[in-house]
Amino acid sequence: MFSVNFSMLLRTLLFCSSASLVSAASADMPEILPNATDSQKDTFYFPPNCDLKPAFKGYSINHLSLVTSNLTRAITFYEEVIGLQHIFTYNASPKYHIAYLGHNTPGFTSCEEITQRKNEIKGLVEFIYLEGATNSPLPTMKKPNTYSHFGLIVPDVKVAEGRVAEWGGRVIKKAGEELDVTNNELGNAYGLGVEAIGALDDEELKAIVEAFKDARTGAIQSAFVADPDGNLIEIQPPVFE
Ligand SMILES: *[C@@H]1O[C@H](CO)[C@@H](O)[C@H](O)[C@H]1NC(C)=O
Ligand SMILES: *[C@@H]1O[C@H](CO)[C@@H](O)[C@H](O)[C@H]1NC(C)=O
C-alpha cells in the first residue's frame, strides 16, 4: 500500500514526475514552468481560449450549501474555528432551519443589512438543518459522494490547523505531513475511496498517488481538517513556497 502526500493540486501536478494522466500535448501550451520536462508540461491541458464570456457578465458563485445534522454545532465550529460570521438563521418551520455564514463582510453595520445585501457577497456558506431528521446525511469523508471539499485560504496554515485541534476538531493532515491514501476518509472525499477504485490497476493507482506528491520539496503545505459533520476542508496558504 502507498504512503501519500496530498498537496495542492496545481503545484503538485506542475512538479509531478509521473506519467501524464490528464492531457495531451498542445503546440499552444504556454511556458508555465521554464524548467519543466515535456512530460510535466503534458500533465496540464489549457483550453486555447480563456476569455471572459460577456453574455454571462454579472454571474458569480455566491454560496456553498451543506446539510448538517446539528446546526448549533456547525455554526459554532465555523464561527470559532474557521472565522465565519453567522449572518442569519431563517426558521422556515419549527423544525426546518436555514443559516448563512460568511467571511469578508466589511462595510456593513448589522446582520440585517448583510442579509439584505447578501447577494453582493461571495464565498458564503449555507447550512440546512432538519431537526429530528430520520436519516443522518453522510459526509464526504464517510461515503463517496458528489461533494468533495472546499478550500480555505489563510495567512498561516499552522495557526488555522491549531485552532481546529484546540477546539477539539479533527486535523486529518497537518501542514507538512504525509497522508496515507489508504486512509479511506480522504480517499472518499477525493473520489478515490475503496468503493471507487475497483477498476484501477495498481500501476494507475500508484501514478495518481504520485500526482498528489510534491516531488520538488516533499513538504505538503496544505492542511486537511474535518468539520463536525465529517466534511473535508482544505486549508491553503495564500502562496505556495
Ligand atoms: C531552471 O533553469 C535555469 C536556466 O534556464 C537555471 O538557472 C535554474 O537553476 C533552473 N532551476 C531549477 C530549479 O532547476
Ligand atoms: C448539537 O451539538 C451540541 C454541541 O455543539 C450539543 O450540545 C447538542 O446536544 C447537539 N444536539 C443534538 C440534537 O445532538
UniProtKB/TrEMBL annotation:
This is VOC domain-containing protein. Residues 1-24 form the signal peptide. Residues 60-238 form the VOC domain. It holds the Pfam family Glyoxalase. It comes from the Eukaryota. PROSITE patterns: VOC (PS51819). InterPro entries: Glyas_Bleomycin-R_OHBP_Dase, Glyas_Fos-R_dOase_dom, VOC_core. The keyword 4Fe-4S does not apply. Keywords: Signal. Transmembrane segments: none annotated. It comes from Pseudopithomyces chartarum.
